[in-house]
Structures are given as structure tokens and as C-alpha cells.
Write a structure and sequence with these properties.
It contains twelve helices and eight strands. By secondary structure, the chain is α/β, with parallel strands linked by helices. Strand 3, helix 5 and strand 4 form a beta-alpha-beta unit. It is globular and about 55 Å long. About 5% of the residues have low confidence.
Length: 307
Amino acid sequence: MKLPGALTLSELLPVAQAGGFAVAAFSVRYLACIRPVVEAAVEADSPLIVEISQRELGWFAVTPRAFRDALERALQGAGADLPFALHLDHTWELPVIEAAVEAGFSSVMIDASALPFEENVALTRRVVEYAHRHGVSVEAELGRLTTTDKLEPEGDEAMYTVPEEAREFVRRTGCDALAVSVGTAHGVYPVKNPRIDFERLAAIRALLPGTPIVLHGGSGLPEETVHRAIRLPGGGISKMNVATDLENALLGAMGGLKRMTSAELDALPGELRALGLEAVRREARDKIERFVLSAGRASAYRPGVEG
């Protein structure tokens, strides 16, 4: 059963698209970091997506159920009416998706972008049929996102999303949101402002007016780049993924510690851990207020209240 109060991307993102803002999707990775991210959203009166990927579940030794329970505790502790989604990020194995749905996630992502187009369509459609039977939304990906250590100034266009293919892909799969490749990458960028193909992004939006568009690789992007992507004619991106910036804030505030498991973070001295978690709260609030422009927009999800 879905976590009580959790929204699907189909409920959360169209409001953002129409309202000229995006919802930050924070890959918090460590269970302890869920609480400060929730606190940041409550303080800013913002909608929120809390997520973790298949790879991160393994890296940080976390189960979908433990992740769900930690979010539920954080929401109860905050005691606020917060529009939120619990999302499974990049995942390519059906058993992991099924485990997340069974644990109460309200949304999942099937990332079959490494497969040929027809195979991507077939696997995505299979996940959509399964997830929709359980009232869960599905994000899919078309085009390939690299990592920033492999980012090339030129020549990555072959991995970019083709607008006409995006329209066919959504039509045939029935996915609820589409992650696209237009020049962003996972990690922190080695250059100040990576080149984003805004013409391609605008073409995708024009062909998919009713489908929320997701931009991955938010860590390190300049604010003006994100704002331009959000404010495209017809409503731009409505979900912006952020992961590395949060983890860097956490570890940097604790003296530059190396990546660890979630349990290892919990075992650190309380005062040291508190420094890191406070840095996470500040970073999340900054992203909400200055990056995705969603501060004060939680009211858009409350009946009878103007956003």
C-alpha cells in the first residue's frame, strides 16, 4: 500500500508545469538525510520528491521498506501538510521496482535507455502496466545521460533525445513522465555551465504538451540554466533531480569524510552528524528557493487555496 499522503508524479508535476516552477527530486541516499530535506520543504512551504535509485540502494545498504519508513517518520515529525512523492529513481530490474511498490512508493522509474528503442518501449510498457494496476506512476527515460567525468564539450549529441521519438515513445508506453537527455549529466560538472540544447528541449515540449518532462543531473547547474529550462513556452521541465550536491554538503560539513553506508553515518558522533544534517537542510532549502522556484507553492496543491 502506498505511503499515506504520497502523490504520484501525475498528481504532482502537472501543477508545477502549469505554475512555472519545478519540484526538486532529492536523492537523499542516507536515511538520516530524509528528515532535514523534509524540514527544508516544510520551512519553504514547497512540494517535494524524495527518491533513491537502484544503484544507491546498494551503495548505501538501504532497503525500499527502510527508506519508506524513514520518510514516514520524518513527515510525522514535521507535522505539516506537505505535497510529496516517494519515488524510485533509475532502476532497470523489475524485482526492485516490485519491491518498491510493495513497500509503498508512489512512483517508480524504469530506465531502459541503454536498450534499443523497441526494447525500451516494450520494457517500459510492461512496467507501466504493472505500476498503474497499483496506482503508482512511472517515469521513463529516452536518450542516454552520461556522467560528468565522461562529459565531452562536443560530440554527445548522438545520445540526446530525439523529439519525434519522444512523442512516439510516450504514446506507445503510456509513461507518466519522461526524463530526457539534452546535455546534462550525473555528478558535478567540470565546467561552469555545460551546454544545454534548449532548442531540442523546446521541441520535445512542443510535441509532448501534456507530459511532464524531467531533467536529471541538477547538481552543479547554474540557476539561470535551470530557470530557462523551467520557463520554456508551454511549461518546461517540472522535475529536477538533485543528488551529488546534497551528499557533498553532508560530507563537507563533517570535515570531508568519504562516502559511507547509511548505517555508518548513523554511527558517527551525534555532534558531528548534526553538522552534516544541518548542511543538508540548508542545501535543500537553497535548491527549493533559488533553483527550482517552488518555495510557497505547496498551497497550489491544497483545495481552495491559491498557489
